[in-house]
Amino acid sequence: MPDATSLPAASLLQLIWLASPALPVGGFSYSEGLESAVDCAGVNSEATAADWLSDQLHLSLARGDLAVIAQAIPAWRSADLPRVKMLNDWMLHTRETSEMRLQTEQMGRSLLEWLRNHDSVSAAHLDACAALPPTYPVAFALAASPLAAGVPDCLSAYAFGWAENMMQAALKSVPLGQSAGQRILARLAAEIPATVEEAMALADEERQAFSPMLAILSSQHETQYSRLFRS
Question: What is the DSSP secondary structure assignment for residue 26, as one 8-state letter?
Answer without folding.
Answer: -
